[in-house]
Amino acid sequence: MNTSWTLLETLSNDILGVSLAPATLQFDIYTLLAYVLPAFLSYYIAAVLVVLPGMRMLRVALWPVTVFLAFRAAVTVDFSRKNPERTYINFGFAFAMFCIVMRALEWAFLRDPLKRRVRHTPSILVDALDLATNLRGVGWNWSEGLRFPPDTRPTSRLRFAVYVFFSALYHSFICGVLHISIQTLAPEAFTTLSGGTIFDDTLPPLVRYARSSIISLLTAFIIYADAQMNYDICTLIGITLAQQDPSQWPPVFDEPWKATSLHDFWGYRWHQFMRRLFIVLGGWPLGSVFGRAGYLLGSFLASGILHGVLAAILNRSVEWWYMPLLFGTMAVAVTIEHVFTRVTGRRVGGWIGRVWTMTWLAIWGNMMVEGHARAGLFAASSAFDTAVPVKGIVEHYMTALDRWLRAFRIVVPPFVGHGTVFALPREGG
User: Fold this and answer.
1) Could you please report the per-residue DSSP string of 155-175?
2) Which of 362, 355, 301 is nearest to 332 (CA)?
3) For residue 233, what are the contacts with CB-CB under 8 A and spacing of at least 6?
4) What is the pTM (predicted TM-score) of this model?
């Protein structure tokens, strides 16, 4: 791990002239104008150029500039303002900078300009702004083949806006409740900025993994609620301030807990924000060599590499390589489903498919959450935690659950040289 960081720091200093030392300039008006806005402006210019014909050479020439500006902003500006519990903001900003670099890379080498499937658009500048902020390509020709969940929300603008507003409040509440839950259930993993583990080695294996699976499940719903909340906020801004049509903001999730296969889960029911990015980064390169299996493996590996590197940026003691390994298991499982369909002529589905999907996600989801917990990613404070009116109730029941699980703690009598004795729960506690 140290060797990898040394190499990365050398490349950063020698090629880009930017140090990988922790960000030292606090976010303020100066850093906004000198570091943050130039990166986004370069990205927006790339979006303008990709909707205009005959601009390919300019797009190619602009990409290195975008890389430099985005990388410089990511490693220089400190959004946490020296508060360790706000380090996750730096994580999110670095993630955003990586996304704009990779999207600009795809645009740089496109032969034909991108086209918006709208009859009347105000201007090229408006189209470029929509493209730059439209991760799923809603209304654009490059998103053909992408399915969107059925929309059951109100169709009138006013009722739609009210619905989205209350959805944002609801999911922010759920996010706060779940965040308090995991921090109460596993304080050693979710309240320590240096990171911790979700596995309690003092518990018998079955109880240990049951406990870690509960933690992982709660974490998955936190990610779901947080993504939905942020999408609702962006939707509200789009339809009120930007006067966009509600149809430009289709649902982002389709009840992922009802998935009957891993292909159904990752390819449709889970959010597709990063789908295109992972396909371009890994799916196309490996797919061109190894076919469909390479396409799947490359897409999942790209996701794993991104998660691993960003976790390592947050905590350099974390082994970044295990994330690509874990995401690679998802590609293996989806490939197995395709092989099953080809051999039997039937798709994976039904209640057996649901059990298969949730079992596989639970097994490897434990390891994914463990990796992020070790990086201290979930230890950050949340503005929603203190706003949750039922905080005391949540802490009470999570503490009771944790106490009950820990009642199974392994007891090693002092007179026993080897082996362990499993302690059963005591009455009343």
Assistant:
1) SSHHHHHHHHHHHHHHHHHHH
2) 301
3) 168
4) 0.84
